[in-house]
């Protein structure tokens, strides 16, 4: 029996968190990760998808390699924080995906601007990329505003 993803704001979602006890730590070795990956990709009734986003842990381990071998990937997007160790890990991940011929879209102006400390929204504010970042920022701002309004109503106290 296939699991049904949760629908939220028009987006179908599934999380490993839905498959384990809410307070259970997730301490998995390779075979357990592979089983979870299999359940998430083949055991969920996704329906027709334009995009499947899989938030993976850092690294170039079994999960990433297996995903690139088992699924027809159109591309990989690697997101990193600026710490040296995170960037090293991101570079390794990018190299692994290149080695197995999974395209990695990279907009040079974003990378070079970031390297120089000039975000794309400053360096090229009228570019499509800057507009995309601004749009995401506006959505985040709206969500934070909604959460603040919910919080301002005060807690619900049940006796």
From TrEMBL:
GO biological process: iron-sulfur cluster assembly; mitochondrial respiratory chain complex I assembly
GO CC terms: mitochondrion
GO MF: 4 iron, 4 sulfur cluster binding; ATP binding
Residues forming coiled coils: none
A Pfam match: ParA
Keywords, alphabetical: ATP-binding, Nucleotide-binding
Keyword Nucleotidyltransferase carried by entry: no
Gene3D superfamilies cross-referenced by the UniProt entry: P-loop containing nucleotide triphosphate hydrolases
Protein's recorded name: Uncharacterized protein
SUPFAM superfamilies named among the record's database cross-references: P-loop containing nucleoside triphosphate hydrolases (SSF52540)
